[in-house]
Structures are given as C-alpha cells and as structure tokens.
Amino acid sequence: MKEQLNDLRRKIYRNLKQKAYSLEGSVSEELKSYREDQLSYSQRPFSSSNIEDLKKSVLTSNVVYLGDFHTFDQNIRNVLRILRVAAQENRKCIIALEMVDAKFQYCIDAYMEGHLTELEFLESVQYHESWRFPWTHYKLIFELAKETGARILGINTTGGLTERDVFAANVLAQTLEKEPSTHILVVYGELHISPNKIPKLLSSRRPGTIQTIVHQNLDEVYWTMKEESANDPIIAFSEREFCINSAPPWVKYESMIYWYENLDSDPDFDIHEYIIEKGKKIFSEDTHENFLGICLELVETAKVDISEEELEDFNLHDHTGLEFIEEKIENLEDQELLAFYQNLIATGQSFRLPSDNVFYCSSYSMNRISYLAGIHIFHSYLKLEDKNQSSPVINKEPSQTASLFILENMYAFFFSKIMNPHRKCEMYWNLKRVFNARGDKTVKASLQVLDGEDLTTTIKSLSLFEIHQVAQYVGHIFGEYIYLRLFHMEENELKLQTDFLDKGYETKSFEQIRKTLLDGLDYKSHKKRYF
C-alpha cells in the first residue's frame, strides 16, 4: 500500500510539474542550465539535521541565503521564522531582497520610514510591472523588518540570470566592505542560491566570508527521503548548507500553476485584492468557514433558496488529508470506481466523493474552491428538493452517470465564473479543431453530445474516466452559457433555480438543459475568448 501511495504521489508531482512548466512557454538556455545545476546539487548525499544546527549556522554567518519559490507562500513562512531567529542577536541586520530593483532603494527607505503608503510604494517601485508575484507574501518581510529594526536592501537589476547574480554579489560585497559586522539575510530565487551561483561569486569577491545556504522543499531531497522512509523536516548537505522540508514538491508547482492561470487569463485579477475587499482569506487554516462563506455568497448571487444550515453539511480535505481520502476511496466496492478516483487524484483534480459530502481539493485556490462550491450547492439542492428522485449513483447506469457528471461540471464551472469571470473553457469551435488535428475519442463524444446525439449511444464504449472527461468539456461549455445568459444577455425569463436546478440530474434533465442552452444559439462558431 505504501508503494502504491508513493506511486500515486509521483504521478501527482509529474503532472503538476509538467503543467507548471508548460505554462511558462519557451524558456532560455540559461534558465535550463540553472535548473540542471540545482538538480545536480540536490542529488548530493545529505544527512539528517535539526533546527538547533540550522540556528547555529545562521547566527554564526555573515551572509545567509534563503531560497524563495516566488508563488509559494509556505516558503515565505519559513523565511520569516529564520529572520526572527536572526533578529534575536544584537548584530545589525540587513534583509536583501530580489523582489526590488536596487535603483529603487530610495523608495524602500522612504516606505520603511513611513513617508510612503503601501500603494505609493508599490507604484514607485513598479511592483506589478517588474515582479508581479503576490505582494502579500513579501509584505510580511517588510512588516517584520519594521518590527525588528532590520534594514531592507534591494539587490535586483535587469538583465539575464547570470548578470543579475553578478550584480547581487557585488552589492553584497560592497555592503560587507562598508559594514563588516552586519548580518545579511538574502531572500532570492531558489535557483540563484546553488553553491556555484551567488555564494561562489561573493566568495571570489570577499574570501573568508562565512555563508549559510538554506534551500526549501527541493524535489530530489523529498523523493530520496521517501525512498529511504525518512521524514526529517531539516537535512544538511554540509555544515553550512541545509534544506527545510515543509511541503511535498507538487504543492509548490500547484502554486505556480495557479499564478500562471490567473495572470494569463486576467493580469488584473488578484486573489489578495479579493481578500482585502471581502475580508475573507481563502488560504488559511479556517478552510471550513471560508468554503461555507463562498457557498453562501454564491447562492445569494445566483438567487438560490438554500439556507446556511443546509450548506453546512460537508467535509473538505486537501493534500494534507490525502490518506483519509484514499481510505474512503479504498472502501468503494467497485474496482472501476476505485481506479477512477485514484486517477483523479493522480491528475491533480478536485472532486466530491460519491454519495457523500466529502470533497477533495488538490490545493486551495479561488478557482478550485468556487468550483467545488458549485458542486456542493448542486448536491445540496438535490437533497433539499428530493422530488422522489433516486439518489445520484455513479456507475449504475452509464447515461445517468454521464448526465450527473455533466451537470456537476456545469454548475461547478458556472459558480466559479461568478467568482472569477475571466475563467475560460474550450468551446465547440476549439474542440472541433482538436478533433480534426488528432481524432481524440473523448473530444469526438463531446461534440456529439453537444450536437444532441443520443447520450447512451455516444458514451457506450467509454471508460468511466473518459466519460468524466467528456462531462468536463460539455459541462464547462454549459456553465459558460448559463453564465452568459443569466448575467450578460438580460434574459430575465431564465432563472437558475427554476430553469436548471429544479430539473434535477437524470438523463432527461440533461436533455432539457441542453435544449434550453443551445437551441437557437450559434454555439459552433464561438471561440473560448469570444466572451
């Protein structure tokens, strides 16, 4: 069982890493070289360590490098812990940051002295144009610096990776020359703190400088530890080089995917702006209340008659509760159903377990939370209305299962569009192009379903996972059109509750909804960026 679990986690990791890198587009040879160097260094032998050894090294160094994975807030939390350790000593402390260009040092000083507001500071340093990674991650560093009296130093510049490393090393060397007793903590991208990058460059400029490198959540370290059945939170490559292991590697790639997806679909969409405006935190320990709050906000927006009490019946788990989810799945008697849900986990998807209000969310992003909220609202309404319908059953009757999956995905996508109207899906026109290019059978079946061909006949040769893929294609398109019709076409005669939710989930319900949405609409010509 343990081997199967590791295999499953490897699949999750590979899928998320591949997707994250695919969103980058083409990358430079220099970046590829940096990644290869990091991989090579992370494959070196290491030994178990502890927080005391790490603290000792940090406190007895001139310069400490703290690796940053820019989209992953867990890394920043570890950085803050180490900064607090350094702040305990009496030495003057400087926090050197990659996120601000050195030419804006006067803006940093003005902000730290209280002469600029937060908004003025971000505009002055051109934050959203030059850096763009979540400000709320780095804001905490500035707040800690103000609290402890540490000075913030910008050490970034324009140019290639090597040029920027050389510049950073020069700034650090000049700072140590002027203030040799200063303790410098460098928060820089994880690829730049490999021993042959900034640390080596600084050593060549100031021999004898005592440096400590603190990596975070290195992929190869995690997998080596799993193979050796080790579970140490801190390991050491040497007396002055450590790695903190606070999260599995696929979680950081998930954060990277989330950042790229939202930046790509809408450069102005910022989850943190939503948090400030609404007073809600999606990424917090209070996940249950946040999920319920999103559900309540959605039903109010869509004018669905479901009370808070009726929506409170759920359990939501993420990767930290993966073993519990897997246990629930293993209790399923049907082997195809078991394989289906394992495949969903392996491909990083979020879902609701059958005949139960247990949800798995691969990670907490706005899109995923609101997507699952849509499924929860749908099932809560089915339970509430219970118009002598049988409970939703998966794998009992393929056409009914397909209908259930399609409508789940329809409501999920529709409600997530309410939270993030810039979400896109593959429309009929796009699917047709994909089919013409490679003849994918799930795409073909999706086109047939959209064209009104018999559902039972269309899916009869498909596996459960393939039916689910068809349901995602079709359901997302349906969700797009519900959103369009209810919020943009001023079709006041259409109501989500009476014209869609009241119809239930069975095959006849799907057929009625398809007609309502697509009949008389030129859906075949619409492209995914049409709206």
Short description:
This protein is α/β, with parallel strands linked by helices and 531 residues long. Helices cover 57% and strands 10% of the residues.
Description:
There is one protein chain. With 531 residues, the chain is an alpha/beta fold. The chain folds into two domains: 26-247, Rossmann fold, CATH 3.40.50.11550; 266-525, no CATH class. The chain is built from 25 helices and eleven strands. The protein has helices at 2-24, 29-42, 51-59, 73-87, 105-112, 118-124, 127-130, 135-148, 161-178, 198-205, 219-227, 249-265, 271-278, 287-302, 308-311, 322-330, 335-346, 366-385, 398-419, 428-438, 441-450, 455-459, 464-487, 496-499, 507-518; strands at residues 47-48, 63-68, 93-101, 151-156, 183-189, 211-216, 234-238, 241-244, 315-317, 351-352, 358-360. The strands form two sheets. It has an eight-stranded mixed β-sheet. A three-stranded mixed β-sheet has the order 9-11-10, sandwiched between helices. Helix 1 runs parallel beside helix 12 (249-265) and helix 19 packs across helix 23 (464-487). The radius of gyration is 26 Å and the shape is elongated.
